[in-house]
Amino acid sequence: MSVTQDRGFQPERRAQALIEALPYIERFRGAIIVVKFGGNAMVDADLSRTFAEDIVLLRSVGMKPVVVHGGGPQIGDLLARLGKETEFKNGLRVTDAETLDVARMVLVGKVGRDIVGAINVHGAYAVGLSGEDGGLITASARDPELGFVGEITDVNPSIVERLLAEEMIPVISTIGSDGEGQAYNINADTVAGALAGAIGAEKAIYLTDVPGLLADVDDPSSVVAKATITELRGLVADGTISGGMIPKVEACIGAVEAGANASHMLDGRVPHVLLLELFTDAGTGTMITKELP
């Protein structure tokens, strides 16, 4: 066996992969793709690197990727190092003024910059934004008991649209503000869905820590490949979808209802999962639409 073969170099298979990808590249050229980046993919250096490569490739073939990121684990780590105890209610972090300052520092000053840097290794493409920039995300208090946890009241995507027109890649930290300039920390899944609708995205893609929507939560192979909003609501109502899967499903539904053509729940722990979903016949994970085509 030759050295190149021993290294797994199989020209015919690589050529076939390119041929399979071609119709999808043509179909999605010029399409806006909003990708919510979080979970284990964000804290694994190798997965972060391959994610950045995928985003640059999408841009290189004519798509318009937009990255929306969270940073809950990183916020929790810094709060712990500062000796500040974290309290959660209904899965949301209670955010007082000090916690809000930490969240802004971590999301805007650390996590966002790391993603921008990883993308810009391949060229000066990425620009970091906060939802506070250019009036992108207007928010109000979600619940007085949660402090400065925000609920989106409006999305003004003009700053994102201008960056996309210049072929840049917006990387958005999910801090919004109200009319008085008060900042709020907002759930990244919610922001991704609202933004996807506001800018007329072709797809809103959520990278998660599960293979997709599971018909049986105890069986990772029971991934539901396609589902409509009506079907998903039925699965929630009858208890098939429960627990931690519900927020993920609600985020996907919210994106489609806001105006995205489709949303996708993908396993962010799989290297190059974006490319597998967008450019292969088999795809991966779960696609949610208003009605199946």
Descriptive account of the structure:
The chain is globular and about 55 Å long. 43% of the residues lie in helices and 21% in strands. It contains 11 helices and 14 strands. The longest helix is centred in the middle third of the chain and has 24 residues. The protein has 293 residues and is an alpha/beta fold. The chain has one domain: 3-Layer(aba) Sandwich (Carbamate kinase).
User: With helices defined by DSSP (H or I, 4 residues minimum), what is the helix count?
Assistant: 11
CATH superfamily: Acetylglutamate kinase-like
- Global Rg: 19 Å
Number of domains: 1
Largest sheet: 8 strands, mixed
Distance from first to last alpha carbon: 46 Å
Q: Globular, elongated, flat, extended or rod-shaped: what is the shape?
A: globular
CATH architecture: 3-Layer(aba) Sandwich
Q: What fraction of residues sit in β-strands?
A: 15-25%
Helical residue percent band: 40-55%
As for the CATH topology, it is: Carbamate kinase
| Largest beta sheet: strand ordering | 5-8-2-1-11-13-14-12
Mean pLDDT value: 88
Q: Write down how many β-strands occur, each being a DSSP E stretch of 2 or more residues.
A: 14
Strand pairing plus helix content: what structural class? alpha/beta
Task: Output the CATH class name.
Answer: Alpha Beta
Q: Detail the poorly predicted runs.
A: 1-6
The ordered H/E elements are HHEHHEHEEHEEEHEEEHEEHHEHE
